[in-house]
Amino acid sequence: MSHRALVIGATGIVGQNLANRLVAEGWTVHGLARQVGHMLGTVIPVAADALDPASLRAALADVVPTHVFFTTWTRRATEKENCAANSAMLRNVFDALPEPQALVHCSLVTGLKHYLGPFEAYAQGTPPQTPFRECMPRLDVENFYYAQEDVLFEAAGRHGFAWTVHRPHTVIGYAIGNLMNMGTTLAVYATLCREEGLPFVFPGSPMQWNGLTDVTDARQLASQILWAATSPAGRNRAFNVVNGDVFRWNWLWPVLAEWFGITAAAYPGHATSLERVLAGREAQWAAIAGRHGLRETALARLASPWHTDADLGRPVECVTDMSLSRRLGFTGYRYTPDSFFDLFERLRAERYIP
């Protein structure tokens, strides 16, 4: 069977790594994004806005995928608006496909806010008992992940394709200009600390500093998505996906500091907003970029400190169970320090950090 993929959000941290993996596996890959200028030459660009049905229909008029991979989202002021906008994007894609009956499988990437709640109510109230398991019921709050799932389930029933939902923890991987990119944000922070003599302070909560946690390498996520989309065992299920190891930030933080040739500062015992630490440092970053001949002088294009603050500031334990996909045959694993080191090395090789 000839596999033809449509990756929605193909320039993002998830979509870009997934598109690379599919191409490597011999798939024909169409990559949809609003800006496609930096898309790999091996991916067929589809320039469109998923919130604009007319442009979407025009852009997809000749695209007949066997598999759709939805890897993007849009942020709005309230969760009610998030639900409306993000479910509309998914619905618009299905409505714009010229031959939806040709679809075999659709994969939707969401995340742990399925268990923790949306940003408006993030990790508030009584936290769910860890580890997070796919069988846990939805929270009794508005959540755009739930709205997206409902659109996916309805479309699958109407057109007869299989589906999977993938719920990663914090995704670590290469992508420039991404809204949620902890790995690159920490690389920029460590670089500023080294170049400007700032203390490399862990910005998160005592719970995150001391407790067990996990993350998801973008390549691990791509491997699970590919497995689920092509394995009978992966049909019509939701899967958690993390690297497969656990760690404590009080162990990993000095390890990351050592990679940059700096010493981790003593933990102050409380969260320190990275958004505040990086505020007003645009000129400092531009000067560093100028001294080292870096490709990006705009700090905001590389760092997303608001998201890193949200992830590392959680007052609850975050440990994810992925036994379901393991029992069904998915055996992927990534060592978390390598997830960060591989990203840092690529950022250095591509001249985004010195």
Provide a concise account of the structure shown.
The chain has helices at residues 13-24, 53-59, 79-96, 113-116, 144-159, 182-196, 206-210, 218-230, 249-259, 274-278, 282-292, 305-312, 323-328, 336-349, and strands spanning 4-8, 28-33, 44-47, 67-70, 105-109, 162-168, 171-172, 212-213, 216-217, 237-241, 247-248. The protein has 354 residues and is an alpha/beta fold. This is PRISE-like Rossmann-fold domain-containing protein.
Alpha-carbon Rg, integer: 20 Å
Distance linking N and C termini: 45 Å
Give me the side-by-side strand order of the main sheet: 3-2-1-4-5-6-10
- Main β-sheet, in a few words? 7 strands, parallel
> What CATH architecture label of the largest domain applies?
3-Layer(aba) Sandwich
CATH superfamily of the largest domain: NAD(P)-binding Rossmann-like Domain
* Number of helical elements: 14
- The amount of helix comes to 40-55%
Structural class: alpha/beta
Rough shape? globular
Q: CATH class of the largest domain, please? A: Alpha Beta
What is the succession of H and E elements? Answer: EHEEHEHEHHEEHHEEHEEHHHHHH
Number of strands: 11
Q: Bin the strand percentage.
A: 5-15%
Into how many domains do the coordinates divide? Answer: 2
| CATH topology (level 3) name of the largest domain | Rossmann fold
